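Posting for a labmate who doesn't have an account.
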Amino acid sequence: MRVIFFGTPQFAAAQLTHLIEQNILVVAVVTAPDKPAGRGKKLSQPAVKEIALRYHLPVLQPVSLKDEKFLSELAAFKAELFVVIAFRMLPEIIWKMPPKGTFNLHASLLPDYRGAAPINWAIMNGEKITGLTTFFINENIDTGAILKQTTMSIGENETAGELHDRMIEEGKILVINTIHQIETETIQETPQSQLINESKYLKAAPKIFKEDCRINWTLSGNAIHNHIRGLSPYPAATAQFLNEDGRSLDVKILMGKFEGKQQENAHFALVTDNRTFLKVALADGYLFILTIQVAGKRALGISEFLNGFKFNGKWHVNFE
């Protein structure tokens, strides 16, 4: 069965590599155009393109998915199935093109967590269980008929980055099994409408913006801990430290640990020995900061950070 693969980042590149190694007949790859990156603004290739070139596969990089030349090139490959992983929304003229359909791998148990950032929001919301779903693409984002799903637990301290990497491995199995069952016409489709009733509240996973990253220090310690790990390592939870003399420090917090206990410090105060620990006093305990990054600097473990920065005087987090 002739397959065309659509994808861009490393998550997709790992799936493409596995398909090729499992002898799936990938006849072409569609990915994003090269983009300037770094200080020199040198053109950088998408991770998927690097894999495609390594295996000498044709690569299409359309600026517009409705470009007539691109659509003609796509149709000329006479693919029977399109596989889409971490790519932009496809117009109907594309996803309807292959006779066996177009399916997507999504990093949640649909219909929950439709949207651009399902891994992040599941952790930020304190979920214990998540998973992966393959589904046929239709005219609305993440709403097509479910093909296969696999369930995964989320560790108590697991970050979005760690879950992302585990999902790469689980996704390989799910995508291969989906392709084989589509090819042998043994796949079972489940409309998402069958999994939704009036009493079910669907959890969403919209794109994450700058304001979503700022830590709300008035929340419970566990909620703050989930917020930090759900955004780690990227785009990372942000905070501002303020000193009584008016100084401020903008930081990203990449790793933390919550300790629930009664404490005598004023709420939102920064508590430190200036050598081994830095913690924020909350209403229900302490949030220990374990990995921190000052704007424009590299991420540091807290002991290394405190070697170079001393909290003299009274400091607190900006909670407004």
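Reply:
Got it, the structure tokens are right above this. The chain has a mean pLDDT of 96.
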